[in-house]
Specification:
single chain; 123 residues; mainly beta; 11 strands; 50% strand; globular
Length: 123
């Protein structure tokens, strides 16, 4: 049974930093693709960043240079370091795992497992 649990969300001032974590169980994180998504009220869920099996990373243009995705295979934990936060970064953040070869990395349909999310509010 795959389980993803996000943590680390909260409130931050514009220009500040927040680090999110996603702990996984039920599968080997070193063998699957992983991603962070976010969703604001009234908006579609959007891809924020992804990290591949070989640690290659991709980012949404809106967060490039400010956010960093990483993972610790030993502890099955995915991270998202969020720096230089902006009010428009306010959203519920979700980690996603176990993907198909279909769809681009930032398409939520690519992933079959999701956490419940953690809220990040920037003011």
């Amino acid at each position: 049974h795959v389980q993803l649990v996000e943590s680390g969300g909260g409130s931050a001032l514009a220009g500040g930093s927040v680090k999110l974590a996603c702990t996984a169980s039920g599968f080997d994180k070193s063998s699957t693709c992983l991603a962070w998504f976010r969703q604001s009220p009234g908006k579609q869920r959007e891809g924020v960043a992804t990290i591949g099996r070989d640690d290659t990373t991709k980012y949404a243009d809106s967060v490039k240079g400010r956010f960093t995705i990483s993972k610790d295979n030993a502890t099955n934990t995915l991270y998202l370091q969020m720096d230089s936060l902006k009010p428009e970064d306010t959203a519920m953040y979700y980690c996603a795992a176990v993907c198909t070869y279909l769809y681009t990395w930032d398409d939520h349909r690519k992933y079959s497992n999701w956490g419940l999310g953690t809220q990040v509010t920037v003011s």
